[in-house]
Amino acid sequence: MIETLLNKLVEMCANVGGKLLAAILVLVVGSILIKCLMKALCKSKLSKHADPTVHNFLINLIRIGLYVLLIVTIIAIMGVPMASVVAVIASAGVAVGLALQGSLSNLAGGIMLLIFRPFKLGDFIDASGFSGSVTDIGIFYTTLKTSDNKSITIPNGSLMNDTVTNYSAHDTRRLDLIFSVAYGTDVEKVKTILLEESGKHEKAMKEPAPFCRLSKQNANGLDFVLRVWVKNSDYWQVNFDLLEAINNRFAAEGIEIPFSQMDVHVKNK
Q1: Mean pLDDT confidence for 36-52
Q2: Pick from 1, 151, 219, 230: CA 20 to 30 A from residue 41's CA?
Q3: Are strands 141-145 and 211-217 parallel, antiparallel or unpaired?
């Protein structure tokens, strides 16, 4: 009796041990094959010619799909009935789906970003209160690199439900500058100075031509708007250069910049 029990126990251990070794072998070999396949996909000609945004998204999706297939294969090798596995996955899926509503929203947002393409890798955008260059568009999150070299991770679900400003969507961009001068200043003289200084800058576009007009009479002085079209890459350089050049020109021409003023009336009783 004891000998029969021991024989069955040894046979069971042998079966379980064999399945366990086979599962470990499949896990190791499968992981290596997946890594090799992903490297081959990244280096393929099709991958090189694909859009970077679509490429990164699909690579992440394929990687996750292959690992899920590997896990299912290992479960089958261990002898677990697939009907039971499917039932457990279906039951757990409902609970996980409720618990991970935010993550599923991010996944849906990632798919929508891939379809509608409001921005791509390298674009400078403003979204969810942050500004930066897009460095990665993942399945769940998008990463921005700010101008001061910070990394910002934004959920894709938030991006799809928020207003996104893409500063890199077009090759050119309009620079709007406001300059204030004191009341009594010659309007035509100010306009001439602003147009001359903007016309001197080599990176300010000639077409469309710079535009300048008196835009507002405020409490302390006159506001002039200067609009100059520039290439996206030259925006900030032209911005700072014109501010410095026009400030120096105003000083040389004796044009007064207004300051906040308050009139006080004293009545003698």
Answers
A1: 74
A2: 151
A3: unpaired
Is residue 63 very low, low, confident or very high in pLDDT (cuts 50, 70, 90)? confident
C-alpha span between 181 and 143 (Å, rounded): 43
Residues 6 or more apart whose Cβ sits within 8 Å of residue 174: 227, 228, 229, 230
* 218 Cβ contact list (under 8 Å, min separation 6): 180
Distance, CA of 210 to CA of 199 (rounded, Å) = 7
- Going by C-alpha positions, the residue among 182, 177, 192 that lies closest to residue 241 is 177
Distances in whole angstroms, Cα of residue 221 to Cα of each of 50, 182, 184: 55, 5, 9
Please state, rounded to an integer, the average pLDDT across all residues of the chain.
Answer: 83
- Average pLDDT, integer, range 172-190: 95
Q: Which helix (H) or strand (E) holds 127?
A: strand 124-127
Helix H or strand E segment including 135:
strand 130-137
Mean pLDDT along residues 163-192: 94
- The C-alpha R_g of the chain, in whole angstroms, comes to 33
Record: fold of 118-166: SH3 type barrels. (2.30.30)
- Is the pLDDT assigned to residue 13 strictly greater than 80? no
Torsion angles phi and psi, residue 126, rounded to 5:
-125, 115
Pick the CATH number of 172-253 from 3.20.20.70, 2.102.10.10, 3.40.50.300, 3.30.70.100: 3.30.70.100
CA 74 – CA 80 distance, rounded (Å): 9
Residue bearing the bigger pLDDT, 1 or 108: 108
Per-residue pLDDT tens over the stretch 219-262:
889 999 999 999 999 999 999 999 999 999 999 999 998 877 66
